[in-house]
TrEMBL record:
Residues 138-190 have a biased composition (Basic and acidic residues). Belongs to the bacterial solute-binding protein 9 family. Residues 133-192 are annotated as: Disordered. Pfam families: ZnuA. GO terms for molecular function: metal ion binding. This is High-affinity zinc uptake system protein ZnuA. GO terms for biological process: zinc ion transport.
Amino acid sequence: MLYYHIQKLSPEGKPAKEPVMLKFLSTSAVVSLMPLMLQAAELRIVTDLPPVHALVSLVAGERAEPVLLMDEAGDGHNFALRPSQASALARADLVIWTGPDMAPWMARALEGGGPSALPLLQAPGTRLRAWAEAAGGHGHDHDHEYHDHGDHDHAGHDHDAHGHEGHDHEARDHDNHHDHEGHDHAHGANDPHAWLEPANALYWLTLIARHLSEADPDHAGDYEANAKAAAASLRALDGELRDLLAPVKDCPFVLGHDAYGYFTEHYGLHAAGTVAGGDAAGPGAQHLSALRARLSEEKVVCAFPEVGQSERLLDTVLEGSSVKKGAALDPSGSSLPKGPGLYAALMRDLAVKISDCLK
């Protein structure tokens, strides 16, 4: 314990003979302040979407609690930060987000500088899938062209399932943005739902660990260990989902929105078409008519709506057909419990719902 030696003063202002020992601060009080001291040193990390938040949480572990800004399905163009979210963003040490093609609202928030930012879609080594030529692009084609941002070799990861040749890619933004309820983003040259490619998730774990280590070098070992453990878990999950989906690989189905190309191509699934294109804009009558004809031509088994989107157009296409309507899919995990377990839950949720309807 710590003490001050304090002397009484006599009425005349002279020191009294007897000292008075007063306890000033105990060691227990010092210990009680330690969590606050540690909390003050914690990395302040902000993320945009649930899948990114989950991956960052896996790597951060107990060292930080990342903030998730867009925790529900919403309009990516008109999404507005609450004051508390704007404050969290302003105080952040590091922002880890998808990129302007997926979250244009974050791009606007970061204009003019601010915290260090890592846009994952623009990271060298991220595999990007070009949009289908049309919203109804279909066929059992698994030779879809992928692009890598640079020559990154995804060290430490197994990519035998994707033998795509890497290409240098320059990110491009298009001006033709479309607003749509539930799921909205800028429509660039490439599909921004890249977290649905397990190879990207594995690469991002390593990339996130590197950036967290640079921001907090004292705990670099923790971040690296967390990333390796998470990667091992995701590889095991990937094998599990391959086994689950293998029996239904040749069963045709249609989707409400062209957001699942990474997932369907990775697992070799037969997506026969989509109601809406990648930007989720409303399709024309000609497209819907062609999609309806395809139901019988390709013997489509199931059709999947999407969480947060109207099922009206899908119901119109299916009217009078024998196609089953499956459970609504959730490509960003907006309806799932948020946290480090969300990414695995998201991938499993997609696989189980697709398998259940097709088998």
